[in-house]
Amino acid sequence: MSETVLKIDGLETYYGKIHALRGISLTVQKGQIVTLLGANGAGKSTTLRTISGLIRAAAGRISFMGEDITATPPHSIVHMGLIHAPEGRRIFKGMTVQENLDLGGFTTHQDKVAREKRLQYIFELFPILSDRRKQDSALLSGGEQQMLAIGRALMTDPQLLLLDEPSMGLAPFLVQAIMKIIRKLNEQGTTILLVEQNAKVALKLADYGYVLETGKIVIEGDGATLRQDESIVKAYLGGSHCETPAS
Length: 247
Fold this sequence. Notes:
Layout: E1 4-15, E2 18-29, E3 33-37, H1 44-51, E4 59-64, E5 67-68, H2 74-80, E6 82-85, H3 97-106, H4 112-125, H5 127-131, H6 142-154, E7 160-164, H7 172-187, E8 191-195, H8 199-205, E9 208-213, E10 216-222, H9 223-228, H10 230-236
Parallel strand pairs: 3-8, 3-9, 6-7, 7-8
Antiparallel strand pairs: 1-2, 1-4, 4-5, 9-10
Helix pairs in contact: 3-6
């Protein structure tokens, strides 16, 4: 029987008076890639921010590895092994690539040897980051910055990785490269909750998907089923727009 890594029941979230999430429930099993899909404003990023403690839930329950984390502060959630790579990359410009990565591992309880081993793993996964380890991160291309953001999140060796729009603003060949890396991470044992506007690309990776519309889950199913149902694609995922990776 699969181990449940994340379970959300009846989650409600507000931005001021705006009711952003309206009773959503979802589950992520160990070893899965699960994707959240939907248009801008559907509540995808809000879901991730609420899971990681950046937004406080108004109602409902979030369980991680069987423990209630609904009211747990963000830094404690990080220590538990739930890591959020946010939309927009949020790298620290003015700092080198390696300094960014070192900060990613700073909040963990790893010793120096374990952190160095993890750093070498990141450099093997993203050779370009090794080549540019002493370079100011502000000088990286958009794709390289995305690799750095993912690498920084991976420095903690997460049990669950939340990825928010990793393909945003990237050329099609870079989208494919990032998605190959996500698949490789999953094959190596990382459980992933992926937010993506590029539905066709996300559903090629995902074991299971949830479609959000105005803060509610309107449909769910395994990735292959959702990808092949054209009525779902046209109704909720933007139709043919989803066929082409974001540029």
